[in-house]
């Protein structure tokens, strides 16, 4: 995969944050099977690796260069 960036904005500070996802994290982020479970697993992996707690703390702006909505 070429672009594996997750671009987010911190809700409280409005600070932009960009995370380069690992291949495993990206596969979970774009999974169409068990979508909620896959997303939660990706968020947990990112938190363990980077310390960024995505759920409830960040608005997702783009995933792999595409607007996330």
Provide tags for this entry.
69 residues; alpha+beta; four-stranded antiparallel beta sheet; 33% helix; 28% strand
Protein architecture, described:
With 69 residues, the protein is of the alpha+beta class. It has one domain (5-67). The protein has two helices and four strands, in the order E-E-H-H-E-E. Strands 2-1-3-4 form a four-stranded antiparallel beta sheet, with no helix packed on it. The two termini are 21 Å apart.
Summarize this, please?
33% of the residues lie in helices and 28% in strands.
Report, as a whole number of angstroms, the end-to-end distance: 21 Å
> How many distinct beta strands?
4
| Order of the strands making up the biggest sheet | 2-1-3-4
What count of helical segments does DSSP give? Answer: 2
Strand content: 25-35%
* Rg calc: 11 Å
Instruction: Characterize the biggest β-sheet.
Output: 4 strands, antiparallel
Number of spatially distinct domains: 1
State the helicity in percent bands: 25-40%
Layout of secondary structure:
Elements: E1 5-10, E2 16-20, H1 23-29, H2 35-50, E3 58-63, E4 66-67
Antiparallel strand pairs: 1-2, 1-3, 3-4
Helix pairs in contact: 1-2
């Amino acid at each position: 995969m070429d672009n594996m960036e997750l671009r987010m904005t911190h809700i409280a500070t409005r600070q932009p944050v960009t995370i380069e996802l690992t291949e495993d994290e990206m596969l979970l982020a774009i999974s169409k099977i068990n979508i909620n479970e896959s997303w939660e697993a990706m968020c947990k992996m990112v938190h363990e690796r980077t310390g960024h707690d995505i759920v409830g703390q960040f608005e997702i702006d783009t995933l792999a260069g595409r607007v996330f909505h």
